[in-house]
């Protein structure tokens, strides 16, 4: 769209997203195509044919586009994940029976395609009896989904890594993440997870990258269950919100690392720029118009807190309720960064 913030920094823009002609026009202008996210129509791209260069390639993206295909991949690679069952919109009564019989401790239903930031998820408690009218309508609209058993975890963690075309892999430190209403609220790097569990997390991601011959940055969200080990939750074939701390907290950001990987450049050794790095998302709390909003006006009388950390404001247009509008990075001593970042977030009225 013409109001997208990326339009402001792009050298060339194709705005029409609906026609195959405009898609072909866009692809023909590119020497190499990469992805902001996995939510695109793979079928349309394949139908165009052509000798286009993609990184990650279309096979990798196709294998990770849906939550269900991710689960099947993890199952194939013998990587621990939550127990799951797949359904579609024609099986609501059968789903109710399975939920009451086999998921008595509660579970989450995830939309196979297009779900993110808590959208496309329905939590089911242990007291489930039947779907509400609202839930039934949502499930019919989604088309396909899977039921995933709740896992009792100690911490949610994420690992962001990259692989180049030569098979060289590098990782950022395992990062602790905190979710609120299905959206990431903050991250803290490095995590307090044991070195053994971090090595296990890296081994799982290496297995995924090698299986798909994946090229580029990839993020994997996981559950750390203490002595129970690491369970993989979801895979994101792209730079990821839980890696935004690398813009200020690492020797190389995840964005530069992605470009290095897909362009065949060397992957440098990664190291933190401070003992600890906190990232706090600026998620929209009010349904307000973002026109003419900027970070200085949003801070208002609390402008003195501006230097508490590094503020990354995305410049999105439209309304802001439950949208990721930016993030704050704070680098410093262990035990101090998250408090400083949260103090600055509280001062930003959006």
Q: Any chance you could write out the topology, listing elements then pairs?
A:
Elements: H1 20-28, H2 42-48, H3 58-64, H4 67-76, E1 84-88, H5 92-102, E2 107-111, E3 121-124, H6 133-142, E4 144-149, E5 155-163, E6 169-171, E7 175-180, E8 183-189, H7 195-212, E9 216-224, E10 230-236, H8 246-249, H9 254-262, E11 276-283, H10 295-299, E12 310-313, E13 324-332, H11 337-347
Antiparallel strand pairs: 1-4, 2-3, 2-4, 5-6, 5-7, 5-9, 7-8, 8-11, 9-10, 11-13, 12-13
Quick synopsis:
The protein has 350 residues and is an alpha+beta fold. Helices cover 29% and strands 23% of the residues. It contains eleven helices and 13 strands.
Low-confidence stretches: none
- N to C succession of SSEs: HHHHEHEEHEEEEEHEEHHEHEEH
Q: Main beta sheet, described?
A: 9 strands, antiparallel
Cα shape = globular
Mean pLDDT: 93
Strand content: 15-25%
Note the gap between the termini.
23 Å
Radius of gyration over all CA atoms, rounded: 21 Å
Count of helix runs:
11
Estimate the helix proportion, in percent.
Answer: 25-40%
* Class by alpha and beta content: alpha+beta
Number of strands: 13
